[in-house]
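Supplementary Methods S3. Complex input for the protoporphyrin IX containing FE-bound model.
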Amino acid sequence: MAEIWFLVVPILILCLLLVRVIVSKKKKNSRGKLPPGSMGWPYLGETLQLYSQNPNVFFTSKQKRYGEIFKTRILGYPCVMLASPEAARFVLVTHAHMFKPTYPRSKEKLIGPSALFFHQGDYHSHIRKLVQSSFYPETIRKLIPDIEHIALSSLQSWANMPIVSTYQEMKKFAFDVGILAIFGHLESSYKEILKHNYNIVDKGYNSFPMSLPGTSYHKALMARKQLKTIVSEIICERREKRALQTDFLGHLLNFKNEKGRVLTQEQIADNIIGVLFAAQDTTASCLTWILKYLHDDQKLLEAVKAEQKAIYEENSREKKPLTWRQTRNMPLTHKVIVESLRMASIISFTFREAVVDVEYKGYLIPKGWKVMPLFRNIHHNPKYFSNPEVFDPSRFEVNPKPNTFMPFGSGVHACPGNELAKLQILIFLHHLVSNFRYVFHAR
Ligand code: HEM
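Predicted complex, serialized as structure tokens:
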């Protein structure tokens, strides 16, 4: 009789193990399977592969191998990358509540944790409405003469220099337009000190985030403090003058929520620095790429010149300012801008984080994983844009298929500054090609 236990016990243990395996398998299935892909080395994941080559090569080769949804691990974070228009829409639009914006803490500290793009929910939508109304076409059309003035003075200052760094100069131009849209006509001493400190923040943004005296990151944090002080001074002055203004600062100062609460100085400063940050590099890179694409296609440049020269003559060679109607009626120049946005895909991808376990097309995106819609892969997919590597503005004579063209993102966090960005680019190009010639040297 005792011997029988020798058989029963192992059989029981085996049965128990089997039940566990079945249960855990069932549990796994009910959560869906992870997308295909490789997680690379422990912790490091595939960070080295991503950073040791052109990131576009990394994303494209992954898409070729695994398809439009794949997993990887970057900088210690498990990620799911999505390269289809449907998947981008799922994350950014239809299921946006399941994904929150995510940025490294060090970057949040530099920009300011109350800046709208770090948030979602009520706070985000209140601030977003303010930003949107400050950059509505009806608001920004009033800025045209001032933007023209900024464009012309930048161009005239270059005319005396044998060579300029296009991107750096475009950054100065975009910064000045940003300051105009935020503060209206600001005293030049304020402008200079804002510029000085903002440039230090900008330098520190991509440095190693070590806050020891002497490091770029530390200097950036100090400059960030200064920026807040300057913004507070400007606010005090404005309050003393009791001036009601319709620029972005005016909108921020006039805001009251449903409980009658106004924004704190901290929230105002963070959002001002946030908007400057979102506006400057993006617009400057776009302009830089446009100049390069036009320079590489002299026939196209001549056609753009002809379009702009007609307006230049209509305005008696700059005696009259550009009108809003004219800026809305530059079809070829507009197509050059959108094709440049597609080709260069300045914001190649964005980041979100899953706030719950999410199932997409039978795949599991676990809670806490980063999710990256890959705009560039979509913009360069021959399924949506034929011969995607060829710069061809005429492709925009027909509207792209829905959700295939997202240079300004999509959904609740889509770019509220897109009209201002396009307006300043059009104005800049008008004055550049009407008055000047340029030669582009790649470095
Ligand atoms: C060519 C120029 C620009 C490009 C390509 C661009 C692109 C984008 C993209 C792709 C997003 C969405 C990011 C995401 O979903 O994570 C975004 C957001 C944003 N952009 Fe732009 N942008 C440009 C210019 C501007 C300008 C001029 C402004 C301000 C005047 C601006 C202000 C913002 C802000 C505040 C957000 C965050 C919106 C939110 O979180 O609700 N951008 N931009």
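Residues 265-296 form the longest helix (32 residues). The CA atoms of residues 303 and 332 lie 8 Å apart.
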